[in-house]
Design brief:
Layout (H helix, E strand, L loop, with lengths): L3 H25 L1 H7 L2 H32 L6 H28 L5 H22 L3 H20 L7 H22 L7 H25 L2
């Protein structure tokens, strides 16, 4: 049997690095936003802020799964859903909405769009909480990711930026899909597969951060 300490260690290391990447992206784009006051940049960086929060909850979720199977620690189902499914669903969903708003902010009412986005994110989280299953939420988040990609591929960009922006959003969508696949597991994944997902996610994070460093110059 795999040592719980090893599973805990790999999950902790992954989460720390992933959260660092999220906040590096958030703060790296701060100067660009302050200089330009470009709302698209502001919504983009907020997406990574909420993604960072969701990774922290993902870590706590993983630790709870390890505890349930290894130490036979059983948390009441209602408490488990309230502590993890509800906030995790909200943070991950609102993060995607911020990406969408970063693409359409010029053609939408900011206040109304954000109120609607937060309302939908809360509603979807409550549905996941009531059903005790993230399946519906995951399917809807995949649909939202498709909207993000469609908006950015249909949106006209300057020729010098087009490839960079499209590649960036493809990478972000790939990162989210990997994250959703992991969250969908109601039991801990085998350590080898879990580490493979973690390495792949961190590699995508590194490429996204590198792209952003070039983008904000």
């Amino acid at each position: 049997m795999i040592e719980p300490s090893l599973m805990f260690g790999t999950e902790l290391l992954f989460t720390v690095i992933a959260v660092i990447f999220c906040f590096l992206i958030y703060f790296k784009t701060k100067e660009s936003y302050e200089l330009t006051r470009h709302e698209g940049i502001n919504y983009f960086r907020n997406a990574f802020l909420f993604l960072g929060f969701s990774y922290v909850l993902r870590f706590l979720w993983g630790i709870m799964m390890i505890s349930r199977t290894t130490f036979e620690f059983i948390m009441p189902r209602e408490m488990f859903a309230f502590l993890f499914i509800l906030p995790l669903g909200y943070f991950s969903t609102i993060s995607i909405f911020y990406l969408i708003h970063g693409s359409v902010w010029k053609n939408s009412d900011d206040k109304k769009f954000l109120i609607l986005s937060h309302g939908i994110a809360i509603l979807l989280s409550v549905i996941s909480f009531i059903t005790r299953s993230p399946l519906i939420l995951l399917c809807l988040q995949c649909a939202l990711l498709c909207i993000v990609l469609l908006l950015n591929f249909a949106k006209p960009h300057k020729k010098t930026k087009i490839s960079q922006i499209k590649v960036l959003y493809i990478l972000i969508a790939a990162l989210w899909l990997i994250n959703l696949l992991v969250i969908d597991q109601m039991r801990p994944l085998p350590l080898e597969i879990s580490i493979l997902f973690q390495i792949t996610s961190l590699a995508v994070f590194a490429v996204i951060y590198h792209k952003i460093l070039k983008w904000v110059k």
